[in-house]
Design goal:
globular, 11% strand, single chain, alpha/beta, five-stranded parallel sheet
Length: 258
């Protein structure tokens, strides 16, 4: 005769099944929440000698905080990600109190907290990249692919927006794309507060050359693996072969914008 499970064993099995179902449902809800979350992205734009955002970066942060608060007020899950360690064109600033170097993402996150009252738990930092392509690559590989964020709003100044758009659209289209689907990118342009005249003109000229160079270097790239090979094998900011040559000089006027 066959055996029949009954009594406490049946109750335990039912409880285990219920717990498993609840766990799977909760995980699915977390995935859906991540997929529908709005993430406001602030690329690196330089810091003052004291580790504070300069006027043009302050303007980015003002807009990012405004978007964040509007989305939160509407009941939407929203976060802010600040990007960049610094720039290869000049040393990182030193905090006058702690005497430690200040990463750009740290300086901008601090400003969001203290100047714009954004809760620290809603801010994520990427403290390693050194330029726009690194901003996009490390945002994707460190945060968005992992966290499941798909809807990004990138805030930047007018002088930097063309390169930002070209770079981010390329990097966030590279295969393999996340299982949950392609990225949705939006871009918000803000004025170039604090920049004008020859300084702004010099930076715009440099931006145009950078856009042309990026398009040439990544024209045939289709995968993140190819971009990884380029960044850490050839790029002047990340490849170790950079240590075999002198740093590229930057026009003093353009340098004021980094």
């Amino acid at each position: 005769a066959g055996s029949r499970t009954s009594g406490p064993w049946l109750s335990l099995a039912a409880a285990a099944g219920g717990a498993a179902a609840a766990f799977l449902a909760a995980r699915q809800l977390r995935r859906q929440a991540a997929h529908t979350s709005c993430v406001v992205v602030v690329p690196g734009g330089g810091l003052t000698l004291e580790g504070r955002p300069p006027p043009w970066v302050h303007r980015r942060l003002q807009e990012a905080a405004s978007i964040y608060k509007a989305r939160r007020s509407a009941g939407e899950a929203c976060f802010i990600v600040t990007l960049s360690a610094g720039t290869p064109h000049k040393p990182m600033p030193i905090d006058p109190k702690s005497k430690f170097q200040v990463f750009e993402a740290e300086g901008t996150a601090r400003s969001l907290i203290h100047d714009f009252t954004v809760p620290a738990e809603h801010i994520f930092e990427e403290n390693w990249s050194l330029d726009t392509i690194g901003n996009a690559y490390l945002l994707r590989t460190m945060h968005t692919d992992v966290a499941g964020w798909r809807k990004l709003i990138v805030v930047n100044n007018a002088f930097h927006m063309e390169r930002t758009r070209v770079v981010f659209e390329k990097v966030f289209s590279l295969r393999p794309l996340p299982a949950s689907g392609p990225y949705e990118l939006g871009f918000v342009e803000v004025p170039d507060d604090g920049l004008e005249g020859e300084v702004l003109a010099s930076r715009r000229e440099r931006e145009a050359k950078s856009v042309a160079g990026f398009r040439k270097n990544v024209a045939t790239m289709a995968t993140l693996r190819e971009l990884h090979a380029f960044l850490f094998g050839e790029h002047a900011a990340y490849a170790s072969r950079r240590l075999l040559r002198e740093r590229e000089p930057v026009d003093p006027k353009a340098l004021q914008t980094y």
